[in-house]
């Protein structure tokens, strides 16, 4: 399409949008503001669906003054590159897992990685929907990043090619983790060998035996086909994976106020949506993994779960210097978690 007909289309589109929304205060520019939203997971996951929902709502509420381009599955950038791209302004929006903020210099986010710190979504939301969650997002601003929302994924399982029923079953295994010192310590605590690796490389690393196993949520396992290359999966629920939706602060602050307001509204609604579907999506993916018949799923007995908790809880104390004793304490207080009960 020529530049002229492109412009014509944009102008006609803008005129139509205006006609359809006469009460809107949004000034519709000839060229829409483009927001590139890059992420590393499949579209058919809680984060993928959340990003698509945000696109739908943001474009609707801004009457086309903003166009959101979603790039899923590491098609634009991988884990580490995407944060650099955001800081440089090459992308405008990301939703990295909370385990990936340490390398950015904000170690406190790794508190979300502490094993067994959240006894389910309800406890977690006391943090992500409360003051502690907001204080953590505020810590991103000196780095030129604005935190817009928390999106849930879910609780992690562990996988390998040998059965996992007890912490000792992980001994000596090379296990892929995200780039978090807390996750590193968690694996060392059970004498496993943690290997930090980009999400996009996990399937191949498991397939070729570069690593023996990994941990992730069921939606990530299924959509990356990890169950095809792992014979055993244990439903340990030992940790949480969720996201902070972030944007380049300079970009965000530079948006026209009415546009920003509509984007905030779209983000609030997309956040509710993503958090509503997260558990169900993971439950469905567990059934999909089960139905594939490729991997044996082990649900922990109470005694087995207690053994994992006992083995991993010392990580909380050991990581005080990394994430801050006060950060850990504020989470205990928000959720009511009491380590002395175990
Ligand atoms: C991972 O690297 O395992 C996850 O952070 C991927 C994701 O974004 O859910």
Detail the topology: elements first, then pairings.
Blueprint: H1 3-20, E1 33-38, H2 46-61, E2 66-71, H3 79-88, E3 93-94, H4 121-128, H5 131-138, E4 145-155, E5 157-160, E6 174-177, H6 181-189, E7 193-196, H7 202-207, E8 213-216, H8 218-223, E9 232-235, E10 240-248, H9 249-253, H10 257-292, E11 296-299, H11 302-312, H12 314-318, H13 320-323, H14 325-335
Helix pairs in contact: 2-10
The protein binds (2S)-2-hydroxybutanedioic acid.
The site of (2S)-2-hydroxybutanedioic acid has 9 residues, from loops.
Description:
- The protein has 342 residues and is α/β, with parallel strands linked by helices.
- The protein has helices at 3-20, 46-61, 79-88, 121-128, 131-138, 181-189, 202-207, 218-223, 249-253, 257-292, 302-312, 314-318, 320-323, 325-335; strands at residues 33-38, 66-71, 93-94, 145-155, 157-160, 174-177, 193-196, 213-216, 232-235, 240-248, 296-299.
- Residues 1-24 have low confidence and may be disordered.
- Helix content is 45%, strand content 17%.
- It starts with a helix and ends in a 7-residue tail after the last helix.
- The chain has 14 helices and eleven strands.
- It binds (2S)-2-hydroxybutanedioic acid (LMR).
- (2S)-2-hydroxybutanedioic acid is lined by residues 40-41, 97, 153, 178, 199, 216, 220, 241.
Ligand kinds: (2S)-2-hydroxybutanedioic acid
**Biggest sheet character:** 6 strands, mixed
Strand order of the largest sheet: 7-6-8-5-9-11
Q: Name the shape in a single word.
A: globular
Helix content: 40-55%
